[in-house]
Amino acid sequence: ATNQMWGGRFEKGNRSDVVAFNASIAFDQRLAKHDLIGSIAHAKMLTHTKILSELDGTQIIGGLEKLQEKLMAGKLVFSDTFEDIHMNIEHLLQQEIGDVAGKLHTARSRNDQTATDMHLFMKDEIVTIMSLLDELMEVVVTKAEMNVNTLMAGYTHLQHAQPISYAHYLMAYYEMFTRDRERFQSAYNSADQSPLGAAALAGTTFPIDREYSAQALHFAGNYQNSIDAVSDRDYLLDFLHASATLMMHLSRFCEEIIQWNSYEFGYIEISDEFATGSSIMPQKKNPDVAELIRGKTGRVYGSLFSLLTTLKGLPLAYDKDLQEDKEGVFDTIDTLKACVSLFTDMLASIQVKSDKLQASLKDDFSNATELADYLADKGLPFRQAHQVVGKLVHYGIANNVPLQKMSLTQLQEFEPLIADDVYDVLDPENAVARRISLGSTGFDQVKYQIKQAKETLTQK
Ligand code: ARG
Questions:
Q1: Active-site annotation holds for 360
Q2: SS3 152
Q3: Per-residue b/e over 124-140, b at no fewer than 16 CB within 10 Å?
């Protein structure tokens, strides 16, 4: 049989495998709620502009509202026969109110309809994701506040570099998540334009009111060009890019959690709730949740690249390729929500072993820069100071004695400028406390960063 909606110019129906291949209902039924919202706004506009009679409009809107109720009750049944969510709903409306349902599609195409649905849907999803991100940021700040005085070695090249406050390390992630949130806000803004009324690509001869529709749907504005309106998927790329970057941040954090949770580091312990055992090794407690978040980062990157590749080389305006915009985005939304909320709870439940963190600073020479700065402060050119301390570290490693345990005479053999005030400088706590530069690990600076963060979060 030929298609009910567009079969007029066809002699033969589609093969059943073609019907299945074309159909998007299996995944775009996720847009049902927003398709109905979009259609109600369109019907209201058509009535408002008198394109539809008051009677037809009332019937159509009533029917759509009925479908909304059925959708919420889980009573709408979709079918491959009607290809996508738009034609499924039109068919259901026809069953509900009869042939007047056919008037709903006046001055509209599935091209602007699918774009409208997706814009509305994305706005809602992005708001949800931003609030999950806010909860994550709250936890990061709370953890930081509890750990201002917890010292650890800061790393570069995964080698002990300089003593830092654990809170400072956590607040670095806070900054990343702040930028993530801005990126999601910006993706929201790009989704906040209405394509409705662009019709197939060229607009319509009917005296529609796009302002009216856009307002009814709470869009900030309208696409200015009808060809762009139906072919633009930049807002989805913005979302996928924001998602990929957020996942990259979570993945880096997870990588550190996995390492720190290892026997070798032993800096933290992941709660049992977020770990799993081994089917053979009874002693195992594996950080699977963190590993899976790290792993799922790949599929989110994949969705970004998949859509970029789909769009590359597409001629204007609508092409069926664009139907491929959905699954990767849907999968990304599901992945992101699960990852952000699980990560938040996992982070909240992590036990920090501050004694182990602090102990790692005992004999590690991470105070070498302090000594070089000390000598520079006493007038030795920093380059020379660096040389002297390098030799001291070399001597210390060879003789298994950290800088702070060398006697004053030993130290002075390398550089007579060293006096007995040096031991204060070598203390890791002082190393942190003495850092006063903006954004540094100094306790006061870290407390300031936390205070700022808390103020920002309470404004949300
Ligand atoms: N299911 C389609 C999509 O997601 C809807 C638009 C179809 N338009 C068309 N002219 N075939 O892109």
A1: no
A2: strand
A3: ebbeebbebbeebbbbb
CA distances from 208 to 182, 199, 263 (A): 35, 11, 67
Assess whether 86 carries a catalytic annotation.
no
Among protein residues, the one whose CA lies closest to atom 4 of ligand 1: 323
**CA 37/CA 390 separation, integer angstroms:** 69
Q: Strand locations in 243-401, DSSP E?
A: 268-269, 351-352
Enter the pTM of the model.
0.95
- Rg (C-alpha) for the chain, rounded Å, is 31
Under 8 Å between Cβ of 293 and 339: yes
- Angstrom distance (rounded) from CA 259 to CA 270: 11
Which residue has the CA at smallest separation from atom 1 of ligand 1? 84
For residue 47 and ligand 1, the question of a CB distance below 6 A is answered with no
Atom of ligand 1 nearest to the CA of 24: 1
Map out the domains of the chain with their CATH numbers: 7-106 (1.10.275.10), 111-359 (1.20.200.10), 368-458 (1.10.40.30)
As averages over each run of 10 residues, the pLDDT of the chain (460 residues) reads 79 90 96 98 98 98 98 96 95 98 98 98 98 98 97 96 97 98 98 98 98 98 98 98 98 97 96 92 92 98 98 96 98 98 97 94 95 96 97 97 96 96 96 96 97 94
Q: Is 213 in the pocket of ligand 1 (CB under 6 A)?
A: no
Residue 222 β-bridge partners: 194
Cα–Cα distance between 294 and 339 in angstroms, integer? 9
- Give the bridge partners for 351, in sequence order: 269
